Amino acid sequence: MGSLLSFKKQFDPAFMRFGLPEDSLNARKGGVLVLIMLVIGLSTGCSRKQQPVLEAVEEPSPAEVLEALRIREPASGQRRDTVMLDFLLGMSRRQMTAHTMKLAREGKMYKVPKGANRSEYVYDLYLDNLGKVRTYFEARFYRDSLYKLECLPSLPKGVDAKTLCAETAVLYARKYGPASVVLPADSVYPGGAHYWIRGNREIELYADDRNRVVIHYVDLLRQRKAERDLDI
User: Fold this and answer.
1) Which tens digits make up the pLDDT trace of 11-52?
2) Domain segments of the chain: what residues?
3) How far apart, in whole angstroms, are the C-alpha atoms of residue 170 and residue 164?
4) Hey, what long-range contacts does 70-79 have (CB within 8 A, 24 or more apart)?
5) pLDDT tens digit string along 124-169?
C-alpha cells in the first residue's frame, strides 16, 4: 500500500505541476525566488554606484559680477550716452558749456561762489526723505570728448554719507531701474556701492571713507582708451 501511494504521488496529476513532483517544484520555486532577489539587489547596488556625485557650485561674488559686467556690457554694442540733466557722454567742451547755459536759463542749474573770484554751476537732487540736496560736479575729457562726470552731493546737516548714499540709491533705482550690482558696506567702500551698467555707460554711487557721497557717470569704452593712451 505504501509503495502504491508513493507511486501514485509520482505519477498522479493531482500531485504534479508541469510534469514535476510537488517537492521538486517547491525546491525550484525557492531557488528562483532567491535568484530574483539576488538580481534585484545587484541592480540596486549598480544603480547606486552609477549615480553622479553633485558638486556644490559657488556663486560669483558681487565684485566678480561687477568685473564681468564691465567687460560684457561695453562689448554688447549698445550705447547709453545720456547722463544727469541730459548731458551726453561724448560731448565736446563747447557743447557741454552750451548745455550748461541752457540749463541755467531753465533754472535747472545755478551759480555758487567757488573761492574769492570764481563761481561754479551746481544742481539739486530731490530726495524723498532729505529734500533738496545741492550737488557739485566735475567733467573729464579725453580728446575733447566727455568720458566721465563726477558728482558730489553735499551732506545735509545732521546726515552722514551712508544715509545720503542710501537715499540717492532709491532715487536712482526709480530713474535707472534696479542696480546691476550692489557691493556691501566695507567690502570696498565703508558705505557700500551701487552700480548701474548698461552698454557703454556705468553709473557708480558710493559713500567713501571721507564721509562723502560720490557719483560717477562713465563711458567705459572712452575710459578704456584714455587709460591706455595715458598709461593709467
Assistant:
1) 444 444 444 444 544 444 455 444 445 444 545 554 555 566
2) 2-50, 62-230
3) 10
4) 70/197, 70/202, 70/220, 73/197, 73/198, 73/199, 73/200, 73/202, 73/220, 74/199, 74/200, 74/220, 74/221, 74/224, 76/199, 77/199, 78/198, 78/199, 78/200, 79/199, 79/200, 79/201
5) 999 999 999 999 999 999 999 999 999 999 999 999 999 999 999 9
